[in-house]
Amino acid sequence: MSTEPTPRVLVTAAAEATIDLLRDEHGPLMFHQSGGCCDGSSPMCFAAGEFRVGANDVWLGQIHGCDFFMSASQFEYWKHTQLTVDVTKGRGASFSLEIPLGVRFLIRSRLFTEEESANMAPVYDGEEYIDRRVAE
Questions:
Q1: Can you give the residue ranges of every domain in the chain?
Q2: What is the pTM of this model?
Q3: Which end of the chain is more exposed for a tag (fewer CB within 10 A), N or C?
């Protein structure tokens, strides 16, 4: 069994390339997935700090140097799955930074194995995450 915790969120090479383009233009980035209908259920990319997180959000980890948050209610549905952020051609209808590039981020998921579930990376609500960052 691995000593490294099982990551809750991963990223594809194609999504990393898009993140690099966006970071060059906008600086540090963050992701949030609200779980709303339509495009609200897609991961949305913002300039770091542009989306205010709080106790109703869950920090799942980082992808390619970007914090990834999800609404707590959405996390309840997805907590048993490993998420992979990918990118596809097509224009979403959100405020996410990649939209002008003619692509949109999306989530692919799979259930964790029993072994992975026994060694999960921790999550923090948005306020706990902010407190941890301030303490660093």
A1: 9-131
A2: 0.91
A3: C
